[in-house]
Amino acid sequence: MIQVNHGPSGRTRIALLWRGDPSEVEKPAPINNRLYPLFNAFADLSVTAEPVAYADHAAEAIRDQLLAFDGVLVWVDPITDGRDRSKLDLMLADLSHQGVWVSAHPDVIQKIGTKEVLVHTRDLGWGTDTRLYPNARAFKEQFPGSLGSSGSRVLKQRRGNGGIGTWKVEMAGKESPHGGSIVRVREARRGSTVEELRLGGFMDRVETYFFGRGCLVDQLFQPRTTEGMIRCYLVHDEVVGFSTQRPRAPGDFAMAREKTMYESSEPRFAVLRSKMESQWVPALQELFDIATCSLPAIWDADFLYGAKDENNRDTYVLAEINVSAVLPFPQSAVEKIALASVTQILAARAVRGAKRSTPSRQSNA
Question: Contact at 8 Å (CB) between 13 and 51?
């Protein structure tokens, strides 16, 4: 077990942060907190882990509170009841600048935690026909041709979760009496239903996704989506487990909430694990210039089954990377998340100590 040198500032403290009411934070217990095993894992490392609830209206007070911690692990979705992370991400970046270790860091989220990563990494070996529309004009000019060439596409807004802003779009094979093609659309959000409408009307509807830093990513629909999705969990660059999800019903686009968890050693995912650890993650790091220690303490990559290869073996297509709020995760990952977090906190502390002990150079002028 790692030995934690607390130093003169006292016992090492880490905050586990999620969105909620700061005035109603309860002491973590098995019945009220899904992160309870992680609190125990930090206790085993002689590290004090404390719950912190985040709300935009209390951001300044929460920032002051977090400055007293050595690190903060964050579970906040990109979109929650219409609220985004813009204010939180600014606060987390400031905390990091002040010397508090943050995971996932907002800079890393911007690199790999948005749907744009599907375009930038489409040639790494896990990609498919994927296109980026940076603005509404490009979308309206180019998407009809993309849809017409394949008949079925998936559109994804830049940041989202729970299927919000992810649409399956396919040609319905008929024309509107008022002119224009009819498309059949369905959002991946749970509870959504199939709609038929004019392609132009649908494009007008999703134009709001371009506000701010928004964009749309256009991916070829994978016919084997009906076979389910594989989620690959990682701590930094190490695969620490898997889960699978199936569509809610035959022919459905959205995945059911229920997941089946697997150890990282699960034989059926051995090829996927090998590709992730030996090829795809190193290539991702090189592409975005991300050191291993800067990868999140817990993140995941979601894969759909691609077409079988020439030897009738499965291939995998990246659907998204999640770094903002990965939960749940396999029980076997808990100790590794805690250990990785503490290791990075100690490394950051050592760097700060070295800087303080290095005498400044005196000018001879």
Answer: no
Which amino acid type is present at position 90? Answer: L
* Residues 6 or more apart in contact with residue 5 via CB below 8 angstroms: 346
Residue 309: other Cβ atoms inside 10 A: 9
Read off the pLDDT band of 364 (50, 70, 90).
very low
| Contact (CB, 8 A) for 155 and 166 | yes
List the end-to-end C-alpha distance of the chain, in Å, as a whole number. 51
User: Which residue has tokens 């100790």?
Assistant: 335
DSSP string, 6-59: --TT-S-EEEEEEES-GGGPPPP-TTT-TTHHHHHHHHHTT-EEEEEEE-GGGH
Cβ neighbour number for residue 131 with a 10 Å cutoff: 19
- The SS3 of residue 15 is strand
For the chain, domains (ranges, CATH) are 13-104+331-357 (3.40.50.2300), 111-125+224-322 (3.30.470), 130-221 (no CATH)
Could you give the C-alpha distances from 267 to 155, 256, 318, in angstroms and in order? 33, 24, 20
Write out the DSSP string of 107-168: HHHHHHSSTTHHHHTTTSSS--SEEEE-SHHHHHHHHHHHHHHHSEEEEEESS--TTTTEEE
Instruction: Confirm if 297 and 236 have CB atoms less than 8 A apart.
Output: yes
Letter string b/e over residues 190-217, b meaning 16 or more CB atoms within 10 A of that residue's CB: eebeeeebbbbebbeebeebbeeebbbb
Cβ(98)–Cβ(306) below 8 Å: no
Of 106, 6, 2, 3, give the one whose Cα is nearest residue 349.
Answer: 6
Structure tokens at 64: 């002051």
Average pLDDT of the chain, as a whole number: 91
Q: Is 101 helix (H, G, I), strand (E, B) or coil?
A: strand
pTM: 0.92
Helices assigned H by DSSP within the chain: 36-44, 59-66, 86-97, 106-112, 117-120, 136-150, 199-205, 270-275, 281-288, 334-357
Residue-level length of the chain = 365
Write the DSSP symbol of residue 363: P
Q: What is the DSSP letter of 223?
A: G
What pLDDT, on the 0 to 100 scale, is given for residue 4?
Answer: 59
